[in-house]
Design a protein that fits this description.
The protein has 517 residues and is of the alpha+beta class. Helix content is 71%, strand content 6%. A 4-stranded antiparallel beta sheet has the order 2-3-1-6. Strands 4-5 form a two-stranded antiparallel sheet. Strand 2 and strand 3 form a beta hairpin. The longest helix is centred in the first third of the chain and has 58 residues. It is elongated, with a radius of gyration of 61 Å.
Amino acid sequence: MHELLQQGFAYLKVASRYKWWGMATAWIICLAGWAFVSQMPDQYKAEAKVYVDTRSILRPLLHGLTIQPDVDAQVRLMTRLLFTRPNLEKIARMTDLDLSAKDEKAMEAIVNRLKGSLAIASARRSNIFTMSAEDSDPQLAKRLVQAMLTVFVEEALGEARRDSDTAQRFLDQQIREYQRRLQAAEKAIEDFKRKNYGLLPGQGGDLYTELKDMQVKLEDAKLALQEAIDRRNEIARQLEDEEPMFGEFGHSAGPYEARIQELEARLSELLLKYTERHPEVVTIRRSIAQLRKRQEQMLAEGGAEESLFSEGEGAALNPIFQQMKIALSEAEANVASLQARVKNYERRIRKIQEQMDARLRVETELKNLNRDYGTIKRNFEALLARREQARLSESVEQNTDTVKFRIVDPPQVPSKPSAPNRILLSAAVLGAGFVVGFGLTILLALLRPTFVTVQQLREVLDLPVLGSVSMNWVDRVKRRKWREFVQFCGACAGLLLLFAGLILMEIKGINLYSINI
């Protein structure tokens, strides 16, 4: 650390040989810089503050009935779109700046000038916007801020109305398109139903349900047919065992009683092998019941049976035989009817199976048509509802103020310039002059190095140093050195005094720009 300090002092000692070069450079830079700063034109800044109230009592009342735009986002977007070229040209026309533009290049220069001189800022978490404009003419700065306020309000309100009009036109266009598509879909379904009449799912029931019902009916018919056949066969078998005529010594109730006993014996045999629901068991029980009923009728009439036995030559017709003949005929007719029903069901099932492909194709195509029609109809109805919401929203925007602009601080003609800050700039010029002057002395010391100490000489030449001769300053040389030091300090003090005078003049408003005006 000690060696670094020694080296730094050595460089400063060498640089002191070129101190007048540094001082001259500092004077030149300061004088040129102060002259430039002093003749800089004054800039006046006009400001205005506006509060944007986006709250409205209608918003909660019309929630769900109207479209609620994000007014805050629209206003903040307008703060960014305010400095677009069309808006800047509008501001130029409102402030008569466009009168000086003779061609497109001059208009471009005016737009660029406005883009650099206009500004808008917003406070955080509030809708207070500060608009400002800088110009050498204070009256023009005020007009620029007033024009910014006008454009901002017009664009913020007009943007919402333009969005509403654009949405209305888009919805009307889409509704017309969907109405055309809806009519085309309805016509397609109508033509398809007319073309495929008789094969539609709604005509005769669903295909699978109809086929399943028909198969169930066929199974029931087959079961009924089998029962009828069994009953017919049983009646035929019983008829073979029955005598068509009674002998002359028959008993009055003997034939019925004998037949009932015979059937009960047969029933007992069948119950050993089958259940009560067996068709033959059911048939025998029905026959027994009919015989008992007839026997009771004959006994109630009294003597009717004896008259039957007295007819002819000692013989009479067997009424049981006649009844069984009639029952057999009815059973055969029932069998024929059930056979016809089974054949009809089988034919209808074959017809349904033959039409299976056509019915499936028609059903699939109809589902596709109905699905497309349903989608178009839902979208059409949704668009109608949205259009009504848009119309109500537009009516609310036209008849009420959804956004209110309140000018908190109107623009005023600035009385004092806001820029440039000549005191700060002059201080910066002074500091730059001293820094550049000192830097020049260091640069000259590096370009023209001088050995100051024996150690430096030994390290650079890498040779042994036998000794050194000290300088013995005489009085004349000391006085001259002292005069040089006083002169150098006076030059520095003069530069500082000149800076103080410039600051004092600036405080009083005296500068080259004000003198030229």
